[in-house]
Amino acid sequence: xxxxxxxxxxxxxxxxxxxxxxxxxxxxxxxxxxxxxxxxxxxxxxxxxxxxxxxxxxxxxxxxxxxxxxxxxxxxxxxxxxxxxxxxxxxxxxxxxxxxxxxxxxxxxxxxxxxxxxxxxxxxxxxxxxxxxxxxxxxxxxxxxxxxxxxxxxxxxxxxxxxxxxxxxxxxxxxxxxxxxxxxxxxxxxxxxxxxxxxxxxxxxxxxxxxxxxxxxxxxxxxxxxxxxxxxxxxxxxxxxxxxxxxxxxxxxxxxxxxxxxxxxxxxxxxxxxxx
Length: 276
Description:
The protein has no helices and 26 strands. By secondary structure, the chain is an all-beta fold.
């Protein structure tokens, strides 16, 4: 793809992350170093100051904005109408959450999230599940910066990026018990020579996974077998996450694959539509 086909929806953002679409068609993201959530709709950008270090975003069916706060070591939820913030979870096994990073809902309403903490050089990162009707518990440990995550379309498998080993893990997901089993290295996706690697990701409707690879200036596309089938160059070295616009949205400009890019603080739109 030629980078001239990529549109800049917004720039001058302070380390944008975690794009996600709400039921009303609005696009949400965060400013990790700006302490804000941002809402993009009808070509207008609104900032919602929340403090801390907001990171990944997941939006439920009622339009509530769930996000990780690495600075305040918690999972929080913003009411998009009232702007009221609720702390959902801030500990696991009696200890504070270690800088939660990204999050996703499974098909039954459980919330899975990663906690990399300071695990770039030591395998101390982990991931958790907040059960819909239960507590927070760890689902995997011993990782070098666990980061982005995504469920397959049928909800039966979960992919987690291990950024500082440049690889993706894939395992079977049980929404009833909140267990991630048979986890194995699924894709050695590569990364930069220096810091960085696979970050946020999004599946398309045919099973290809689009992965923002921080430090490379690329979205890398992984096929259902775990093979990298393509690269999409971006106007910036540090993509952090991506999300496909829903096929039907209310009152929103036509968008395809939305990417957050941190080097230049951009919210990008790539003309790649979601096909089921």
